[in-house]
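Protein in question filed below.

…
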Amino acid sequence: MSATEQVELSNFSSIFSLEGKVAVVTGGLRGLGLHAASGLLQAGCAKVYITSRKENACDEAVAALNALPHKRPGAQAISVLANSSRVEELDRLAAEIRKATDHVDILFANAGASWGEKFDTHPEKMFSKVMDLNVKSATIDDPSRVIITASVAGIGIGTIGEHATPSYSASKAAAIHLAKNLAVELGPRHILTNAIAPGFYPSKMTSSLIEIKDGLKYLEEYSPNGRLGRPEDIAGLVVFLSSRASSHLNGAVIATDGGAVLQGRL
């Protein structure tokens, strides 16, 4: 086969398209989850389910997503109330989604929490809560793509001292290892699992930590590319990992932090 014939047989025009796909985004009402849901809808998804425990916030997020001007005709964001830290709630979430569709193509397991306190006084109750939400919530149903939100705190050393986050760092390291295990377990079933490891993205969850770290300017200067994460950074990465362009990626952990984790302690 000639090079010309090979090029003609390669259909790259739709390589990033998610036309007609069904996605589920846990923790999709704000921050990274909302950015990802927006990207999935605008890349062609027919339905994007977002989940949260807060009904009013869920309704507000769905309204904003459904008002997006660049989604495919008929595309829809749908909210499902669920506490992602409880397995029985995840079962109920799956049952609710099955009422409307017979398949899920993409799962973005993004729901998460953190807790900052000195290591010596870090409460066991909060350690367990963070682990339950950040790790247990990342296992649900059988989509063709599973994307798990980890963190650079699970790769390098997270915040230490008075505002230490050992539970968060441990949970995100566990999430990374879970993604690798699922990649091997689910790969033969044609389900690809990858993890993303965001650095600092301005959000409600990171606002207190940004203040502790002497503000945005310090964090921007600490990053080799001179800035923090933006909505399109997370949306583009999730769309890529959901698309045909990433069909040979399985068990990968992609840091999206401008290279800040390479500088040492976060």
